[in-house]
Amino acid sequence: MSEEIERIKERKMREMEEEMKARVEGEKGKKGLRGQRQGQGHKIDHTLTLTDNSFVETVRKYPLIVVDCWAPWCGPCKMVAPVLEELAKEYAGRVVFGKLNVDENPRVATEFGIMAIPTLFIFKNGEPVDVIQGALPKQHLEARVKEWL
Predict the structure, then answer these.
(1) What band does 28 get if pLDDT is binned at 50, 70 and 90?
(2) Is the pLDDT of residue 37 over 90?
């Protein structure tokens, strides 16, 4: 079953990448959409808000990004939010942190098979490299992020 889920995730990521490439091709003449990653060197000291439409572009833009899949009614998600804001400040310039409201953005949540929240994905160079489920203490989240620096 997990192999099938992995194949589905890979297929969906490819589809989303193709969709993004098509969008980029339609943006000819606009700087920063092709070539090197825009996110390098930018010091973002807060969590970014991601959507179904911005997800692929954002994940590919930054060399290392942690995406928190959450919902406003989720108690554990509310516990993780301030921790992620702290980590965003502490790791500004090295790691970007983003939040995806799964209620408002069901496409990405469905494509990644998110069954519980909070679920955090770590992406390195546009590829998912780690998944964290549940509200872990700051030191545990930080340790997992440091593994990918």
Answers:
(1) very low
(2) no
CATH number at 79 reads 3.40.30.10
Residue 18 neighbours by CB distance under 10 Å: 11
Q: How many domains does the chain have?
A: 1
Residues with catalytic roles: 74, 77
State pLDDT tens for residues 67-119: 999 999 999 999 999 999 999 999 999 999 999 999 999 999 999 999 999 99
Select from 93, 84, 44, 40 the least CA-distant residue to 66.
84
Burial class (CB in 10 A: 0-12, 13-18, 19+), 126: middle
The 3-state DSSP class for residue 10 equals helix
Which residue(s) pair with 120 in the sheet?
Answer: 68, 132
Q: How far apart are CA 20 and CA 95, in angstroms?
A: 22
pTM across the whole model: 0.73
Q: Which residues pair with 86 in a beta bridge?
A: none
Radius of gyration of the chain (CA): 15
The parent domain of residue 79 ranges over 2-146
Can you give the pLDDT at residue 20?
Answer: 57
